[in-house]
Write a structure and sequence with these properties.
Helix content: 25-40%
Structural class: alpha/beta
Mean pLDDT: 95
Shape: globular
Strand content: 5-15%
Number of domains: 3
Length: 630
Amino acid sequence: MSQSRPPTAAAPFLPMSRAEMDRLGWDECDVVLVTGDAYVDHPSFGMAIVGRLLESRGLRVGIIAQPDWSGPEPFRALGRPRLFFGVTAGNMDSMVNRYTSDRRIRSDDNYTPDGQGGKRPDRAVIVYAQRCREAYRDVPVVLGGIEASLRRIAHFDIWSEKVRRSILLDAKADILLFGNAERAIVEVARRAAAGESIKGMTGLRGTATIRDTVPGDWVVADGSHLDQASRGAHGDKVVVRLPSFEQVRDDPIFYAQASRVLHQESNPLNARALTQRHGDKEVWLEPPPLPLSTAELDAVYDLPFARAPHPAYGGAKIPAWEMIRFSVNILRGCFGGCSFCSITEHEGRIIQSRSPASILREIEAIRDRTKGFTGQISDLGGPTANMWRLGCRDPATQAVCRRLSCVHPEICTMLNTDHQPLIELYRAARKVDGIARISIGSGVRYDLAVRSPAYVDELVSHHVGGYLKIAPEHTEEEPLARMMKPGIETFERFRALFEASAGKAGRKLYLIPYFIAAHPGTSDQDMLNLALWLKKNGFKLDQVQTFLPTPMSLATAMYYSGYDPMRPVRRESGRVFTARGLKQRRLHKAFLRWHDPENWPILRDALVRMGRSDLIGPGRQHLVPRGNRK
């Protein structure tokens, strides 16, 4: 790709200092990547993938990890990059990483040495991009990663309680890459090396750029009118107009409309370009990236990762690395479409699966190269544990489909749910020399698993070590419908299969269910019913989750606007109730931990208000005991 010198050999680690560059014989970097995470050279860390991928194309790539953002000098540590700065907040959104759902500051950061908090700024993408500009004003800035990806259009920000502009404008960057960006980043680098301006690049899938106007040779399909989602022309030069930033900022119903259009244009096989007016500028989104083929995904995981944190961290522990160093990611994407989840907005709904050979090679690499390995593979999965090689049976159907979920409200008849290939993968993985055990601790999509009792048997017999975390999320029909999750009866079917398999295997195993409090569509009565179900079934939850409205999700659109973007958006539509106040959100969370004495006062008050004083008392039929007379 570079025209001035031959490709370089793979570096032991991508350099984080000028001294390392000198040892490699580099006079400059072609690309400098700035990340909010510590640098771990492993395919579970986005910057490591991007860096190694660009390196494989002959570029010299340096990394500035968790820089001091108080001034521009740390951003000059590797000198002026020849092509561009690549900026990401890291594997997590910096605001989600820093604040709880109650907006309390977290004391730790799993992506930082020794878990130390405060090592990245709030809204890290914006801050880092500004410092890159201050360091070298003429060097282009390319945004990527989940924080940028989920803020590519106007979005509701729970931390400031307002709608913010596209992050591309606030960061004053040249281009934004959204979703899985391997193809896009390589193409941006290739075209930049050939002398093309990054700010002016067009026609590149998975990118967002700023334009003054819609080009005259494009046809505009207007999606800014209510109940007009996805109507209009189709073709190579058709762009769908979203409601403008000013519209979604000033009238929440247009936020729901924008969300509806965006999600209906999310299948990369039929999605059209989108544009959203911000003042006198157009934020232009090309169609989402096409999924990587199995061979392409294998090639990513075969890059020469050191599979360890950079030596500069010495003996410091990086919790996220400790968590994944013995695990293997076998797929990308999720066709579940849960409305509160950002996976589908970022990775897409089409499953991208690695080959068995690639997966087995990584298991062997962990065995042979990862310090401290004792024969235990801690996980074999991804966004979900059991969607590997699942997908639409018919390419022609997939090419025109605009469903938001393949499994809601019912599992699509065109969806292949055959778990036999996954069973065979598990068996092959267990046969690798030196592997004592492979654990699957969470991520099982149980509405798929119930279709394969043989899979449940395999899972329970060989891969569950004591307990399996599972995510029914709720028991009541209304919140489950808003979440796009199956009914609780499907969980009951899975539990029956799980317990039967455990009995056959002679093992004492437990399910640990996850639930969400205060999700849009959830009333106080829904939470009470869930608490009674938990008590009846003997579940005393330690870890519970309160709904956090993250940018771009369907559930966030419900939270902010009161309208459900999964349905046509009309002013006369029924509104979606959401627990918004801190007091009510804490009540919903308290129902999940009905057994905790600290929650009993707030629960007693709520039960009296709801006319359910009959649930207060000392008996088994009661939810909480009476308070003392003091």
